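Practice problem 4.
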């Protein structure tokens, strides 16, 4: 896999490049946003620093995302800009200093995620049908009236059947933050989905981890 590393810190770029090559990746490096946007067309994965000398990395990310959906992780010392990067299309982020083993694991996770169809069309679990394009949920053929956000939570879990979605991942994807108020709202929405569908098994809670879609009635 061809990895493009957009990083102006030459020492960090050299260290990351060494670890990536040892892991079997082909690595190209540039220090500038302009070259990063241009070279991304030939990359299978992009690692993007936000503190670049010629252009703010967030602006480079916006430009890149206008013409490419290449898997991309923001690697930055600017922890305060993490959410901005996710909103602009980054698939994940790492805050410096970077641990190479965590970087490799995050890259592999992003590749697995982006390799799947980004949108499930219709999923049936037991007697529950989730129709994503129609934004419709039925139980035994009966329509269930979910709010917009309740449906978004259910659709996110339905897009990854059998997998656990971390609480933080859901909060970032749907709320854009991991604040206590957003976390409490997620709890309420999950409870409402179970109550409105009458299927307590539909969403399984993994204490301390997150949620997954249920497999059906026990």
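Answer key:
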């Amino acid at each position: 896999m061809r990895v493009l590393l957009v990083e102006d810190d030459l020492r960090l770029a050299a260290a990351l490049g060494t670890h990536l090559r040892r892991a079997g990746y082909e690595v190209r490096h540039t220090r500038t946003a302009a070259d990063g946007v241009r070279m991304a067309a030939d990359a299978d994965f992009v690692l993007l620093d936000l503190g670049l000398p010629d252009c703010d990395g967030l602006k480079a990310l916006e430009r890149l995302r206008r013409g490419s959906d290449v898997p991309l992780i923001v690697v930055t010392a600017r922890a305060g800009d993490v959410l901005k990067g996710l909103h602009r299309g980054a698939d994940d982020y790492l805050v410096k200093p970077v641990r190479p083993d965590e970087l490799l694991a995050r890259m592999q996770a992003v590749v697995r995620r982006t390799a799947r169809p980004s949108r499930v069309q219709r999923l049936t679990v037991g007697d529950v049908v989730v129709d994503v394009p129609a934004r419709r949920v039925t139980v035994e053929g009966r329509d269930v009236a979910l709010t917009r956000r309740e449906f978004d939570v259910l659709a996110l879990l339905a897009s990854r059947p059998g997998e656990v979605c971390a609480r933080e991942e859901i909060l970032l994807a749907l709320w854009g933050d991991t604040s206590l108020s957003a976390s409490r709202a997620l709890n309420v929405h999950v409870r409402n989905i179970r109550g409105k569908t009458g299927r307590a098994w539909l969403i399984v809670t993994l204490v301390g981890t997150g949620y997954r879609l249920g497999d059906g009635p026990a």
